[in-house]
Amino acid sequence: MEEPFNADSLRPKIDDLTAGSRLAFLLSCAERLFPNYMAFTTHHAWGKPDALQEALDLGWKSLEGQTVTKVEIANAMSRCEAATPDMDAFGSELASAALDAAVGCALVLELLIGDDSSKVLEGASQTIDTVDMYVQELEQLVPQDPLRERKILRHPLMQDELKRQREDLDVLSQVDWSQQHVVADLARRWRRPAISNIGLARTE
């Protein structure tokens, strides 16, 4: 069984990565959140998935070594902020997941402005929070339950997310960025996933 998420133990692993690997890890996390936003938009008829997709696309563009201008980032950030749902306005369990997705995409843009391990750590934490909240709703767990945290940890969705982060970090710690095919390989594995980190199918 995977161990609980621990930011303090994860930070040195992120710090040890190259800047490119940090961006790739954050992109992987944000990509898994994006289908949740699409589900939210379908359910509530509100949102701008294209704004979040633009942030992800700029992240991959930068990872490929292409120039992403400050103007592009600033414009994308504004659109991403406008697409972020207000939690007070929506009542479904999808709202929190959509908020996390919007924040995750904004973190990608912030990382393009300047390499910062704390942004990557926040993105990893965001994906865990999404699963945590969704499992609590799905299983109707209450704060008073003394076994609540253990139940969340043992849930297949949480175990899958923890395993995925560990495996992604293992892959990125060994990446040879001098190889031209590296970004294409990562994009093929991680970009536009069919299923989100809480098991929701991607819709187009």
Task: Describe what this molecule looks like in 3D.
By secondary structure, this protein is mainly alpha-helical. The longest helix is centred in the first third of the chain and has 26 residues, at 19-44. The protein has one domain (10-175): YP_001051499.1 domain like (YP_001051499.1 fold like), CATH 1.20.1590.10. It is built from nine helices and no strands. The mean pLDDT is 96.
Write a concise keyword list for the protein shown above.
0% strand, 204 residues
CATH architecture: Up-down Bundle
Could you name the CATH homologous superfamily? YP_001051499.1 domain like
Order of helices and strands: HHHHHHHHH
For the report, how would you describe the main beta sheet? none
Number of strands: 0
What would the CATH topology be? YP_001051499.1 fold like
What is the residue-averaged pLDDT? Answer: 96
Q: How large is the count of helical segments?
A: 9
Tally of separate domains: 1
Specify the CATH class.
Answer: Mainly Alpha
SSE layout and pairings?
Elements: H1 7-15, H2 19-44, H3 49-63, H4 70-82, H5 94-113, H6 117-138, H7 148-154, H8 156-172, H9 182-190
Quick take:
The protein is an all-alpha fold and 204 residues long. The chain has nine helices and no strands. It has one domain: Up-down Bundle (YP_001051499.1 fold like), CATH 1.20.1590.
